[in-house]
Amino acid sequence: MGAPEGPNGSIEVRALTSASPRDWIWLHRKLLLPWFLAVTAVVVFLVSLATGVPWPRALFMVVFNIGWWAAVWFLLMRAQMKRKSALDEQGISIVHIRYPGSAPGSLGDLWAGGIARCGPGKIVFQETMDGTDVPLGRPKTLDVVELTQQPELADRTHHRHLFPGWSVLRLTLAKGELEVAAEPQVLAKVTQEVLGTGPSIEP
Question: How does pLDDT run along the chain (203 residues), one tens digit per residue?
Fold first, then answer.
């Protein structure tokens, strides 16, 4: 059982396809948000003036609305970061899985989102409600035999239900195959734990 390694011995996660504009925007969203808000503020202010709104009122409307949406974005990002940090401390990763050999349209063919704990040759996956840690059903213990296909950037045509910028890894199980999707750095961690020398886990 093995995995592709980089020059420093780390598991290599390659992007075999070029990132789409949507992927690029998502990966750089924190840098692009201030520019987006600034451009939006100028456009809204000029449109308000053009429609006869007095400039003090137009300025107030712009500042209020930009401040509102910036606050909402900040709170959402902080909640996501706190959740991810809490899971990382427990050795848990946020992933999606599917079984590529399943019948088209079946539950196994669809992406299931949840959390995973990984160890050598094993993934314990718990499906959860979207964006939460509320479990759906019982956890599944998946016995991994080997790496089938190197990690690659998700093709938006075939993986449109995944988050932009995520990568997909294909593994051979004791019975069938499994695709695991996650952020590239998370997928590299999962790969190292499952195919490398990560700590063992209990089912």
Answer: 444 454 444 444 444 444 566 666 666 666 777 788 888 888 888 998 999 999 999 999 888 888 888 888 888 888 878 888 877 878 888 899 999 878 887 888 889 999 999 989 999 999 998 877 788 989 999 999 988 888 888 776 666 778 877 889 899 998 889 999 998 888 888 888 888 755 555 54
pTM score of the predicted model: 0.65
Helix runs in the chain, H state only = 21-27, 29-50, 55-89, 184-195
Among 51, 70, 85, the domain boundary falls at 85
- Helix or strand or coil: residue 20? coil
Indicate whether 140 and 107 sit together in one domain: yes
Report how far residue 28's alpha carbon sits from residue 149's, in angstroms, rounded to the nearest whole number: 27
By residue range, what is the domain housing residue 105? 90-195
Question: Domain check: are 30 and 44 in the same one?
Answer: yes
Q: Are 65 and 29 members of one domain?
A: yes
